[in-house]
Amino acid sequence: MSHKNNPSYQIPVRNAPYAPFDTSQQPISETQPSYTTDRVLEIDNSQIEDEQGSKGFKVFFPRFSYKSFIFIISMIQLAVFIITECYSAYLDKKNGFSCVLYRFGSKYTPAIVTNYEFYRLFLPIFLHGGFRHIAMNMLSQWMFGFNLERYHGTKRFMLIYFLSGIGGNLLSAVRNVNNPSVGASSALFGVVALRIFYIIENYDRLGPRKNFRLLFLGAMVLGNIQNARYHSTIDNSAHIGGFIVGALLAIIFFKATLDTKFYVKRVFALIGLVVFMVGCFVMIMMMTGLEKAANNFEARCDKVFS
């Protein structure tokens, strides 16, 4: 029996925050004071015109690059998805797909607590529960990921992406104890939080479309969260956790000059990030009575692979 025809077990997936990324933002003059050290503010008119006049992929995915982190991780995610789908089709057994994802590292709290499989807080970023799931995630990543990576730098963007993904999985492990889940949307929600923070912090300097951008991103986040209320397979906790971590990291990494109040915000954001990440981890490890669930799931998957 194919896993696609089996309604008895569904693994929660994370819907991607789908939205195009607007590149019409006007650059900030170098003569203006304060936050002029951020890479976002260093892009000049010629760069924007070059991007707007580019052809090929860059028409739909601004600042597209084969060498970018977003492109590389998207290809890895796609390769992993193809492997898991083919492996599941080869097994052709009940619960086959869910067990394949489990063996590849889906988030499952009983296994994390009982067997100390902490990699399950990271690997779900590379796993997806179906074609529509990965298609939406990759489209969202490509729509605004290339822009944000160029603006903020690859290293900083990678750190925000992965820490947001881990933070989302931590909150998911706390709130959805018995439900395995996969998806990169927790990381994507962190990236969206980064974009929203930039607009808020530079509100007085941005062009007339700033209100539209801010309202659009806010509606996108709230819409995705609201949508999860009507779909039990969507892991809303991962979305919220990723957004929280992304927002805190945006404050921490934003470069300010001669602004004492902003550095105070940065300190509080760092404290908040540590409290959130460590707090979730401690709550997970303090859980008890999960041995039976972990053993049963493992035994069920052993039968699938036998």
What does this structure look like?
It is a single chain. The protein is mostly helical and 306 residues long. It has one domain: Rhomboid-like fold (Up-down Bundle). The chain is built from twelve helices and no strands. It has helices at residues 45-52, 57-60, 69-91, 96-104, 109-115, 131-152, 154-175, 185-201, 210-228, 236-253, 260-285, 291-305. Helix 3 (69-91) crosses helix 4 and helix 7 (154-175) packs across helix 8. It is globular. The two termini are 16 Å apart. The model is unreliable at 1-9 and 18-54 (pLDDT under 50).
Secondary structure elements and their pairing?
Elements: H1 45-52, H2 57-60, H3 69-91, H4 96-104, H5 109-115, H6 131-152, H7 154-175, H8 185-201, H9 210-228, H10 236-253, H11 260-285, H12 291-305
Helix pairs in contact: 3-4, 3-6, 4-12, 5-12, 6-7, 6-8, 7-8, 7-10, 7-11, 8-9, 8-10, 10-11
